[in-house]
């Protein structure tokens, strides 16, 4: 009887290992085209600041022509009240993981950073 229980436990362990492996390998959502570009806000304290989103990077314009670039690892997407909430998971150059949550309004084509009220508009090319 113990032999059958051991086999069942091994089978369950192997199944769960395979399941977690494939769950971790699922394809990430690509950065949506409407987010790709340079975003600015009209608030005076951010006059020389910007947010640049590329297909694989999140870049902060930190002033004086300086940029800090991060690799986007994954994106989560939620729909809420006619807006799309994007959480960008990224790593800094030291390998530390961070996330940035953006609320995108398709009607106005603007974004807001979660827990902030400032509106960011895409810079026209």
Short overview:
18% of the residues lie in helices and 46% in strands.
- Beta-strand percent range: over 45%
| Biggest beta-sheet profile | 8 strands, antiparallel, barrel
Give the rounded overall mean pLDDT: 84
* N- and C-termini, Cα separation: 72 Å
Count up the helices: 1
Outline type: globular
Q: Unreliable runs, pLDDT <50, ≥5 residues? A: 12-27
Strand and helix order: HEEEEEEEE
Describe the structure in your own words.
Mean pLDDT is 84; it is low at 12-27. Strands 1-2-3-4-5-6-7-8 form an eight-stranded antiparallel beta barrel. It has one helix at 2-24, and strands spanning 37-41, 50-53, 57-63, 66-80, 83-91, 97-105, 110-113, 119-122. The chain starts with a helix and ends with a strand. The protein is 18% helix and 46% strand. The chain contains one helix and eight strands. It is an alpha+beta fold and 125 residues long.
